[in-house]
Design a protein that fits this description.
about 5% strand; mainly alpha; Neutral endopeptidase, domain 2; metalloendopeptidase activity; two-stranded antiparallel ribbon; Collagenase (Catalytic Domain); about 475 residues; 2 domains; Peptidase_M13; MetalloPept_cat_dom_sf
Length: about 475
């Protein structure tokens, strides 16, 4: 697959033929039309185009913070959509039955639209209904042109250099990655488990993984300890929190089955890669992945990996409602905190909002938006306290750690905080700092400063005088 991506000569010789073939399959003309575009044709294109859209789409869906999930039949969703369209003077169009029929053609399964229930977040439902109303009033030619723009966005990097340069003009970027890096990323994105297999160490399962499991056990214990010490959470909410901690499941490193004979071949069954047809390789893999997801309908796979092991990061599966106070231990959307606890929690967040809003980025002369970054600031502050508590539990059970050469003068606690600071150590350009003002994360420097100002163990470890910059009297502590 990498060779096909790097074979620029063949890509140029084939030109736009693969794109034209895909347009034929979708039902789009080879060139955008200004006349003779009908709503039916456009709807068919949108449905079909969805099968190809995941080729370059890898982002997780953001978690909704304030709406519950309910179950609806397709007809109920259509009725709600019709009501919204009537209020906005739009034309009611029966779209949802056709939409779901189109999606399930890859599974070859018929749905009972009178009985099948769809779990949908209320905010998502509102968005879909308003979007349907907007689309119903949008001229078909505009929708067709939108699809054409998405075709360029999705396919440009995998065709000719001319089309890719056009893509860069429409979507400019400060840094254009080398083709070798783009191709390596494409292989990793589309065949991540295969890449993981190539670099996986057999000893990981028996040697490294058990150590990580011990670390996670310490983290869970530390979290339960921090919850137990909170004064703003009532006992019943604490009890439910403990139960949720017990139900937490973890996926570590790579799946145990990855190194078992024949399992990788079974995982990628049906995928064929040709060294001369790069675009078709990308599309066929995407189609098979979509079919695999549709096969999960009514038969969800336990412990499914939503990102590949080659992604060096920690992640939560938003799609299965695994985190936040908005979902209970079983993943159901409900407010399982008491009203008093919720009120106390929201009052305490004001402290963090004020603290981070006071941080000024000197290069820009602007302050951080404490409201925008609140969610991530809560996570940063809680995580460092939890990690330090887990670290001290570890030291109590195992004794002092061996000294790191060159750092013998520092205590384990000092090494812990230096490691945390090093994690976010970096140099940012002014453009990067400007972009950070729109980000939900605080700039790197203030992720460290803000959280460590609030942890008493830091100032005690480093003997920070009272009222010094890193040891303010008022500390914002939630967990």
């Amino acid at each position: 697959m990498y060779e096909a991506c790097m074979d620029v000569k063949t890509l140029e010789e084939r030109g736009l033929e693969p794109v034209m073939n895909m347009l034929d399959e979708i039902g789009l003309p080879h060139f955008p039309t200004i006349i003779n575009a009908t709503g039916d044709n456009t709807f068919s294109c949108v449905t079909k185009f969805g099968e190809f859209a995941m080729i370059m789409t890898y982002n997780e869906t953001d978690e909704t913070e304030s709406y519950e999930t309910r179950e609806y039949t397709v007809h109920q969703i259509q009725n709600i959509t019709d009501s919204v369209q009537a209020l906005t003077n739009g034309t009611t169009i029966p779209i949802w039955k056709r939409y779901f029929e189109g999606i399930f053609t890859v599974k070859d399964e018929k749905l009972d639209f009178e009985k099948e229930k769809i779990s949908i977040n209320q905010l998502d439902l509102e968005y879909l209904c308003l979007m349907a109303a907007y689309v119903s009033k949008t001229p078909p030619i505009h929708l067709e042109l939108y699809i054409w723009m998405k075709v360029i966005e999705v396919l440009a990097a995998d065709t000719t250099q001319t089309l890719y340069q056009l893509f860069l003009k429409i979507y400019p970027t400060d840094i254009v990655a080398a083709r070798s890096l783009r191709c390596a990323n494409a292989v990793n994105d589309m065949l991540g488990m295969a890449v993981a297999y190539a670099i996986a160490e057999p000893d990981f399962i028996n040697v490294v993984k058990p150590e990580i499991q011990v670390m996670l056990k310490n983290l869970k214990g530390a979290l339960a300890q921090l919850i137990g010490k909170t004064k703003w959470m009532d006992d019943n909410t604490k009890l439910k929190s403990y139960r949720k901690i017990i139900e937490m499941k973890t996926l570590i490193g790579f799946p145990d089955w990855l190194l078992q004979e024949g399992q990788l071949e079974s995982y990628y069954k049906g995928i064929e890669v040709n060294k001369k047809t790069h675009l078709e390789n990308m599309i066929s893999i995407a189609q098979i992945e979509i079919k695999a997801k549709m096969d999960d309908y009514r038969q969800p796979r336990p412990n499914l990996w939503y990102i590949d092991p080659t992604v060096v990061n920690a992640y939560h599966v938003f799609a299965t409602n695994t985190i936040s106070r908005l979902y209970d231990k079983d993943g159901y959307s409900k407010n399982w905190w008491s009203n008093e606890t919720v009120d106390s929690y929201q009052n305490m967040t004001e402290c963090l909002i004020k603290q981070y809003s006071s941080f000024k980025i000197p290069e820009l002369g602007k302050n951080i938006d404490g409201h925008k970054t609140l969610g991530e600031n809560i996570a940063d502050n809680g995580a460092i306290r939890q990690a330090f508590a887990a670290f001290e539990r570890h030291l109590r059970r195992t004794g002092p750690e061996a000294k790191l050469p060159g750092f013998e003068e520092y205590s384990p606690q000092q090494m812990f905080f230096m490691s945390y600071g090093n994690l976010w150590c970096g140099v940012s350009t002014n453009n990067s700092l400007k972009a950070s003002l729109e980000d939900e994360h605080s700039p790197l420097k203030f992720r460290v400063k803000g959280s460590l100002q609030n942890i008493e163990q830091f100032s005690r470890t480093w003997n920070c005088p009272p009222e010094s910059p890193m040891n303010p009297t008022k500390k914002c502590v939630i967990f």
